[in-house]
Amino acid sequence: MTMETLKLDLRDQIRDVPDFPKPGILFKDITPLLMDPSALRLCIEKLCSPWYSKEPDVIIGIEARGFIFGAAMAVSMGVPFVPIRKPGKLPWKTRSASYALEYGEDTIEIHEDAVAPGQRVLLVDDLLATGGTMAAAIRLVRELGGKVIEALFVIELKDLHGRDKLPDVPIRSILTY
User: Fold this and answer.
1) CA dist 38 → 43, 92, 128 (Å)
2) Crossing angle for the helix pair 37-48 and 65-77, nearest 10 degrees?
3) Model-wide pTM > 0.85
4) Positive or negative, the Cα torsion across 111, 172, 75, 147?
């Protein structure tokens, strides 16, 4: 890590977008962070650093922005990367889990052979809001016999209490709002 990277404040790389995707929402846009190689490098380092000495067996990223951070972490740590996707996007046999949204329900899927029983899994996503997506991902990993050792997020929106849906999993967020 360079001295320039050490001086970065990742909070400066997050852009607030008012009224997106609907009125009253203040969207936290990670695009500026992704466009700055030093900021992205620092973010990946912060996500990975506690795990270099006790590597996970697999890193799983949740569609879509979790892919960005999870894949970079997997390359940095030299461990496999697995995607969790929306229904119908994975080409092999899958398991699915549904979760509640503000209005309705959504579903995510994972390949049945993506996690072996007993494997230690880091789950990664860009944002922890209400926690529904991550809770569903944890259920999928456990159904396959994996052990979730931590749920990682670049950003956590504390006022939405997403941690409450993940009571038995260690959670770490790089930035909180």
Assistant:
1) 9, 36, 23
2) 70
3) yes
4) negative
Give the torsion through C-alpha atoms of 20, 23, 24, 27, to 10 deg: 0
Amino acid at 117: P
Burial class (CB in 10 A: 0-12, 13-18, 19+), 79: middle
Radius of gyration of the chain (CA): 16
DSSP states along 42-66: HHHHHHHGGGGGG--SEEEEETTHH
Per-residue pLDDT of the chain (177 residues), as tens digits, is: 554 545 689 999 999 999 999 999 999 999 999 999 999 999 999 999 999 999 999 999 999 999 999 999 999 999 999 999 999 999 999 999 999 887 789 999 999 999 999 999 999 999 999 999 999 999 999 999 999 999 999 999 999 999 999 999 999 999 999
| 126 within 8 A of 68, measured Cβ to Cβ | yes
Element (H, E) at 128: strand 120-128
Assigned CATH for 53-176 = 3.40.50.2020
Which are the catalytic amino acids? Answer: 65, 102
d(CA 69, CA 125) in angstroms, rounded, equals 7
Closest CA to 113 of 96, 93, 97: 93
Return the structure tokens found at 127. Answer: 């944002």
